[in-house]
Specification:
heterodimer, A: Rossmann fold, 4 domains, disordered C terminus, B: Glycoprotein, Type 4 Pilin, OB fold (Dihydrolipoamide Acetyltransferase, E2P), 8-stranded antiparallel barrel, elongated
C-alpha cells in the first residue's frame, strides 16, 4: 500500500491523479514551475514543491529535481502522467535507485518499446501483424521495384532514422519509384545524415485503433478493449471513443486485436497500464504501430465504458498487488466519446491562444465527465501544450453519446482565450462521423462550414454590447428599469 | 425615452435603438428583458426565447457564438475614421500571444513581399510573420526573447 505519491506532471492529468490519490486515501505531492504556482493541481494536492522556472527543460523534465522533491517530501512513489518524463527509462531507473517506486512499467520494457524500430522487432517476434515492409536499406532501384511490387502499391518510402515526415514519400505507381527513392534518400541524408530508406506498404485511409492493456508484476495481464482515435489533426488526436464503431459491428475484431496486444506486451515483459497502437484498414486487417508505455490522455473513455478505474489499478499494481480482474470480467457498456479541449483558434489556423480565462462555464449533468486543469481567472501559460481539459461523455448508445457531447459542448463557455469547443460540434454532427465512417484522413477533408448567420443572436450581441458599454450613470438618467440598471452596475463591477 | 447607438458587429455597421423593454436593430423591433447572472454574463429574453450572453471586452458570446462588437454614441462619432489612413505603411502585429524566438530582419532592411520577418512561438508552435508587401523596415519594435500580446505591433514596414 502506498502512503504518499508525487505527481510529476501538470495540468489536467496532474488533477486527475491527485483525485485518484485522494479517493485511495494516499497523500499527494504536486510539483510546479514558476508558471504553475497558481495551478489547480497545486491547490488540490496535499503538498506542493517548486521545481524551477517555466521552461519544461528546467522544471518538469528535470529528473534530479523531481527525485529530490520526492525524497524531501518522503513520497514512496512517483506517478509520471503522460508526456514529460513518463516514457523516459532513465527516469524510471533514477526512481528505482533512489528507492522510489515508479508507477509504470519496468525501465527495460520502456526501453524495448520506446523506439519504433525495436518495438516493431518485438511485435514481429511475438507474431503480431505489422505493416508489411522491409527494414533493409534500399539503394538499388531494381531491388526496390521488386519489393514494392510484392507489397503492392501504394507504398511508403521512409527514412530509417526518420521522424516528422522527413524523408517520407508516397509512391502510387512503379514508374515513380526510382525518382521518389532518390528524393527520399537525399532528403534523409540532409535531415538525419543517414540516407537509408526503407519501404512499407501504405495503408490507405486507415483507422487508428489502440488496445489498452493492464498487467500486474506477477505475470497476469488482461486487455480492456479498444479506443478509436482516428479523428486527428496533424497527427494529434482530438476525438476518441470506446467502443470503436468497427467493434460495434464486428466484436470479433476486439478479441483478435486484444490477443495480439497481449502477445506483444508479454514479449516486452510489460507490467502496469500500457497501450498498443494499431492501424486498421478497410478490410479490417490490423497492423501494430507502436506502444505507449504509460497512461494515455484518452484513458477516460475506457474507464467510462468498462467501469474500471485505470489510475487506481496503476497505483495498486505499482504497490505490488495482484490484478484481481480476469479477462472475462471485462465488459463494455454503452458508448463513451472524448473531445480534447485546446486553447487554440480554429478560425485562425488553429494558432495557440494562451492567456487569461476571463469567464468559464463548465458542462455538467447526466453522463458528463470533465477532466479539466483550469478555472476562471487562470492564466493559461504559453510554455506548455495547449490542452485545457477533456470532455468525456457516456451514454447508452453511440448516437446518444454524440447528442450528449453536443449538448455538453453547448454548455461549455470559455472567454478570454480561444478554444476549439464550438468546432467539435460540427465534427460530431458530420454525416461520416455519425455513421462511424472514420479514418485518420477525416480531418484532412473536413472543412468547418462557415457559420450560418443568426440574426437573433446577432441582435442579442448588439443589445448586450450597447447596454454594457453605456456609462453607468447614463442608463439611469434615461430609464428606471431595474434590470437595465443592474446590467449597468454589473458592467461597472466587471471592470 | 430611448437611446441610439451605432454598432459595428463583426465589421458591419448597423443602428441600434433601445429603451428598457424594446429595441430596434436592423429595422426589426423586438421586446426584450435582460438579467445579469454572474459577473460578465447575462440572461436575455427576446420575446420568450432565452439566450445567454457573455461579455469579454468587445467580444460578446451568445449561446457559444462569438461576435466582435464596437459601440459608438452617434453624438461622439463626428471626426472619427480619419486616423488610420496611412496607405503606405504596414504594421506587423503578433497573431497570437507568445515569445519572439527569432528576428529575421533589422531596421532599415529592404524586404520583399512574402519574406519572413519575425517568428513568434507559443505552446510549442511557431508562427512566422511574413511581409504583406515589399518595402523597408522603418521600425523594429520587438527583440528576441520578448513576450508579446496578440495584436501587439512588432515592426512597421513602409
Amino acid at each position: 500500500m502506498l502512503r504518499k505519491v508525487l505527481v510529476a506532471n501538470r495540468g489536467e492529468i496532474a488533477v486527475r491523479i491527485v483525485r485518484a490519490l485522494r479517493e485511495a486515501g494516499i497523500s499527494s505531492v504536486a510539483v510546479y514551475s514558476d508558471a504553475d504556482r497558481a495551478s489547480l493541481a497545486v491547490k488540490m494536492a496535499d503538498e506542493a514543491v517548486h521545481i524551477g522556472p517555466a521552461p519544461s527543460s528546467e522544471s518538469y523534465l528535470r529528473i534530479d529535481k523531481i527525485i529530490d522533491a520526492a525524497k524531501r517530501t518522503g513520497a514512496d512513489a512517483v506517478h509520471p502522467g503522460y508526456g514529460f518524463l513518463s516514457e523516459n527509462a532513465e527516469f524510471a531507473e533514477a526512481c528505482a535507485s533512489a528507492g522510489i517506486i515508479f508507477i509504470g512499467p519496468p525501465a527495460s520494457a520502456i526501453r524495448m518499446m520506446g523506439s519504433k524500430t525495436s518495438a516493431r522487432q518485438v511485435a514481429i517476434a511475438a507474431g503480431a501483424p505489422v505493416v508489411p515492409g522491409t527494414e533493409e536499406a534500399l539503394r538499388d532501384p531494381d531491388r526496390a521495384r521488386e519489393i514494392a511490387k510484392k507489397l503492392g502499391y501504394p507504398v511508403l518510402l521512409k527514412a530509417a532514422a526518420g521522424g516528422g515526415g522527413k524523408g517520407m514519400r508516397r509512391v502510387d505507381r512503379e514508374q515513380d519509384l526510382e525518382a521518389a527513392l532518390r528524393d527520399a534518400s537525399s532528403e534523409a541524408l540532409r535531415a538525419f545524415r543517414n540516407d537509408e530508406v526503407y519501404v512499407e506498404k501504405l495503408v490507405v485511409e486507415p483507422r487508428h485503433i489502440e488496445i489498452q492493456v493492464l498487467g500486474d508484476q506477477h505475470g497476469h495481464m488482461i486487455h480492456l478493449g479498444e479506443r478509436e482515435c482516428s479523428i486527428q489533426r496533424r497527427h494529434q488526436k482530438v476525438i476518441e471513443e470506446c467502443p470503436s464503431p468497427v467493434m460495434l459491428a464486428h466484436p470479433e475484431l476486439r478479441e483478435k486485436m486484444g490477443e495480439a496486444a497481449l502477445k506483444v506486451a508479454r514479449a516486452a515483459g510489460y507490467a502496469n497500464a500500457g497501450t498498443m497502437e494499431f492501424l486498421v484498414d478497410r478490410d479490417r486487417n490490423f497492423y501494430f504501430l507502436e506502444m505507449n508505455t504509460r497512461l494515455q490522455v484518452e484513458h477516460p473513455v475506457t474507464e467510462l465504458a468498462t467501469g474500471i478505474d485505470l489510475v487506481q489499478w496503476q497505483l495498486r499494481i505499482a504497490a505490488g498487488e495482484k490484478l484481481t480482474l480476469q479477462q472475462s470480467d471485462i465488459t463494455w457498456t454503452g458508448s463513451a466519446i472524448e473531445c480534447r479541449v485546446y486553447a487554440e483558434d480554429p478560425a485562425n489556423q488553429f494558432l495557440p491562444s494562451p492567456g487569461k480565462i476571463t469567464y468559464l462555464e463548465q458542462p455538467s449533468g447526466p453522463g458528463i465527465r470533465l477532466d479539466s486543469g483550469v478555472y476562471q481567472g487562470w492564466t493559461v501559460p504559453l510554455d506548455y501544450d495547449p490542452m485545457l481539459a477533456k470532455l468525456a461523455v457516456w451514454a447508452p448508445t453511440r448516437e446518444l453519446a454524440i447528442e450528449r457531447s453536443r449538448r455538453a459542448l453547448r454548455e461549455y463557455i470559455v472567454a478570454g482565450i480561444r478554444t476549439n469547443v464550438a468546432w467539435f460540434d460540427q465534427i460530431l454532427d458530420h454525416l461520416d462521423f455519425r455513421s462511424g465512417a472514420l479514418s485518420t484522413a477525416f480531418l484532412d477533408r473536413f472543412e468547418a462550414k462557415p457559420r450560418e448567420s443568426d440574426p437573433e443572436a446577432e441582435a442579442v450581441a448588439a443589445l448586450v454590447a450597447a447596454i454594457t458599454s453605456a456609462k453607468p450613470e447614463r442608463p439611469q438618467e434615461v430609464c428606471k428599469s431595474s434590470a437595465w440598471r443592474d446590467a449597468g452596475r454589473a458592467e461597472m463591477m466587471r471592470s | 425615452m430611448s437611446v441610439r447607438r451605432e454598432i459595428f458587429i463583426d465589421g458591419r455597421g448597423a443602428a441600434l435603438e433601445f429603451d428598457e423593454s424594446r429595441f430596434t436593430f436592423d429595422d426589426v423591433e423586438r421586446v426584450y428583458s435582460i438579467a445579469p447572472l454572474t459577473t460578465g454574463s447575462f440572461s436575455v429574453l427576446i420575446g420568450e426565447r432565452s439566450y445567454e450572453a457573455v461579455v469579454n471586452g468587445r467580444e460578446i458570446i451568445v449561446d457559444g457564438r462569438s461576435f466582435n462588437v464596437d459601440v459608438f454614441d452617434p453624438r461622439e462619432m463626428r471626426g472619427r475614421k480619419s486616423a488610420d489612413a496611412d496607405q503606405g505603411r504596414a504594421n506587423i502585429a503578433a497573431m497570437m500571444p507568445g515569445k519572439v524566438v527569432r528576428v529575421l530582419v533589422a531596421e532599415g532592411d529592404e524586404v520583399e513581399a512574402g519574406q519572413g520577418l519575425i517568428v513568434v512561438e507559443a505552446m510549442k508552435m511557431q508562427n512566422e510573420m511574413k511581409a504583406p508587401k515589399a518595402g523597408r523596415v522603418i521600425e523594429m519594435k520587438s527583440r528576441e526573447g520578448a513576450t508579446v500580446a496578440a495584436g501587439e505591433i512588432l515592426l512597421v514596414i513602409e
